[in-house]
Amino acid sequence: MIKLKTKIPGLRSTRILAGLKKKNGGWGEPHPLVLSGKGKGAYCEDIDGNVFLDFACQIASNPLGYNHPELLKVVSDYNKRFPLKYAGQDFTIEEHLDMIESILGISPGMNQVFLSNSGAEAVENAIKIAMHDRNKKKFTVSFQGAFHGRTLGALSLHHSKPVHREGYILEPNKELPFSDLAGDELQETIKQHGADAVAFVILEHLQGEGGYRIPSDKMVKGVYSICKKNGIPYIADEVQAGIGRTGKWWSFEHYGIKPDIFSSAKALQVGATVARKGFFPDEPGSISSTWGGGHALDLAVGMKTIELIKKHKLLESNRKNGDYIKKRLNELRLEGVRGRGLAIAFDLENGKRDKFVLECARHGLLVLGCGINSVRVIPPYVIKKDEIDEGIDVIGKVVKILR
Ligand SMILES: Cc1ncc(COP(=O)(O)O)c(C=O)c1O
Questions:
Q1: Model's pTM, two decimal places?
Q2: What are the backbone angles phi and psi of residue 193, rounded to the nearest 5°?
Q3: Which atom of ligand 1 lies closest to the CA of 149?
Q4: 169-197 pLDDT, tens per residue?
Q5: To test ligand 1's pocket by mutation, which of 148, 152, 159 has the most ligand atoms within 8 angstroms of CB?
């Protein structure tokens, strides 16, 4: 249960947050609490002893919640060795192959995987392998609202918040509408520049930072079939929506398509670029990174996560719990309730969203914004019905306060 002992943020959290505001070069208004590491399931505790219900899930990167006993066991299995991170491309460990096989086991049709450290790196390497043999490429193609990470290659594909992008030299990119018009525009682009000019097309099949928008069947199948017909590599970015959050392992599976390449990270605990045969370059050393495939503990936790999702049938329960959350949000008469599985969002009036997120935290519920005025509801896969009800009650209360 949510249990607040202090005003939020509490005194100890306030001191740490003030230090970070001054000294963290990547300061970005974090939530008003500092986590202590304590917590259980969907609940986490801050360093002031306040217990929060987490519908933000470390931005979809903590799918099994806090202090899951089977994950704690994995951590303790690794507590008698050092280093935990190896230069995995040059000095390999068993977990490297085990994780690649785990990923391929849930990715029919895919043949090879490159492991890295983050979502941006997973995308960056997807970009590289898609581009590698396309000698006449002139530009990349992504979609309105897209977010693929902060490294310069990934940022070139970005059409979410301008603050992420402004001030950098980026690669040439064509932005397609995130709508049924996308296929026609892609066709027109090919007519003007030729298919070989298009390095690749990249799409989030449930758009994350851009607003938890679900592309229509017509949009996805239209763009996909044009790519197939013209030999243009098709990349799916699964960094946020993958590893079961939408009720399928990968969000592109909702469309019955098979991308050439996809990226994963967050819930997987490491970055992964996954591809069909023929996309990774043959030359040894062409794709690499010091810690690629060498983060032993992260790999073990990621593999156990996949195992537990299978064992506890969490894809099915994500779909069921997601339907229940949408029903409860609709009962509150919120605008634009949408989502797949446990990737859910709703809209607020312009200008109210950030206040809403802060007020929820002050009432002990962690949620996240996305898009311009949307709120993400992304609880861990271990969420229970009474916990959903507790969170929805807070949402209802805060909606009333801000009305
Ligand atoms: C769809 C998508 N791609 C890529 C990224 C970048 O991942 P990371 O922050 O781990 O670099 C994100 C992060 O939110 C994302 O949502």
A1: 0.98
A2: -115, -15
A3: 6
A4: 999 999 999 999 999 999 999 999 999 99
A5: 148
